[in-house]
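Hi everyone,

Forwarding the result from last night's run.
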Amino acid sequence: MHFQWYPGHMTKARRMMQENIKLIDLVIELVDARIPLSSRNPDIDELGKNKARLILLNKADMAEDTLNDEWIGYFKEQGYSAVKVNSKKGGGIKSIQSVIQEACKEKTERDRKRGILNRPVRAMVAGIPNVGKSTFINALAGKACARTGNKPGVTKGKQWIRLNKNVELLDTPGILWPKFEDQEVGLKLAFIGSIKDEILQTEELAAELIKFMNSAYPGVLEEKYDIPAAEDIYGCLRDIAKSRHCLVRGNELDAGKAAAILLDDFRGGRLGRITLERP
């Protein structure tokens, strides 16, 4: 499978971020805790290279906790502030305001020396599609300020949100980058739902997920779907179809429907806490 998805609105969004970066003190980059490296857009690194940086491992409740901690350590070694959060349930959100102030303390000190007091920190919230930026903003603001959805491309334009007198946030659309050098990265982005499903081959994608699960988390699929252990990947998919009564006319097994169920269960955290890459 070849992965690529870079619709026109992403080019526009990148340009908009470039124009606004001069107004920004801090770039808050959300990554998916299940793929902290593959869900980092190199363009965001380029845009924010002279700014204070904060990386949030979002959806941390879906990834292995010991690996979350390893990733936090990895990013801190690279010189970033880093925190794990679970925006949907509010985990880690309370600490964010103080982390923002800490990440920007040099800027605040510079302002103070120039006699500028109480200027709010302006932070750009950035990340790839479907990583949970709008959910994070709403959790931080304590109210619905940003539109959310469980498919990529819900946020289309920029939006300023004033959290309080200390912090203003700029919500930006999720952007990918024009070309994935490594198709492994594309595969992981497809697993978590950051690439539009309509352009993917669902059965092949599910087969790749089964291959990964069998080697990294053996026994999980057998237990979840009550199926026998199978060496044959497509055999495993057929067993899931049988277990979940996915049938087409004539009582034939519907592997496409079984593939969609498996991907949905993985994305919804129903297969347990799973991390796809290690630091």
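The mean pLDDT is 89.

Cheers,
N.
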